[in-house]
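During the reporting period the student researcher (J.K.) took over the structure-prediction task from the postdoctoral fellow and processed the backlog of single-chain submissions. One of the processed entries is reproduced below for the supervisory committee.
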Amino acid sequence: MCIKVDAVREGCWRRVNRPHRRLELDAVLEGIRTFAASYQGVLTTETTLVGGINDGTDDLRATAIFVSSLRPATAYLSVPTRPTAEDWARPPAEAVLARAWEMFRSFNPNVELLSGYGDDAPGDAEDPEQDLLAMAAVHPLREMAVRHVLEHAGASWAVVSQLVGRGALVEARCGPHRYYLRPVREGADAQRPAQPGTLSTH
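J.K. obtained the following C-alpha cells:
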C-alpha cells in the first residue's frame, strides 16, 4: 500500500493537492496515522515535489518528519513527469532534489528518488558507467560514493566527466557535499514498484 503525502502544512497542502474545501488537513493526517498504525502489509509513501511549491526547507522537513512517523518500508520522492494542467507544476532543480533526499534520509534511511529513469537495468562492476547511471536513477550519489564505484571498477574520473558532458548525469551541490544524479526527465512516467493500493491526501 502506498500513501501519497505531498505536504503537511496547510497552505502548501491546499496549493499542491487542491483538496475539496470541506476537507481539513488535521483530520486527513490523523486518518493516515491511524491507517498506518493498523496496516499489516508493506507500507510505502510517495511525495511528489513541485518546484517552488512544496520543496522549501521548512515544508520538506515537516513532510519528512510526518512520513517518518508512519514508518514506511520505503519513502519515495517523485517529480511531475507528465504534462500537467498547470504551467507552474514543474520539477524542482536537481540540487533541490538532492537536498530533499538528504532531508528525508535524515529521518528515514530507506528513501528512493523517482525521476523518470526507473527502467534502467542494474549495472555491474565491469561497467562503471551503467552502474553509476542505475544507482543515480534511484538516489543522488555523493562524490565519495561515486569515487568508490570507480575505484572498485578500476576506472578513472573521466567516466563521470563524460556522463556529465553528455547530460546523462548532473552535478549538484547541497551544503558541503557534491552530488551526482540523473537529470529530471519531463514527459516520461517514472517507474515505481507495483503497489496493491494507493491512499492520497487529496
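The committee noted the following: Residues 51 and 92 are 4 Å apart (CA to CA).
J.K. will present the remaining backlog at the next meeting.
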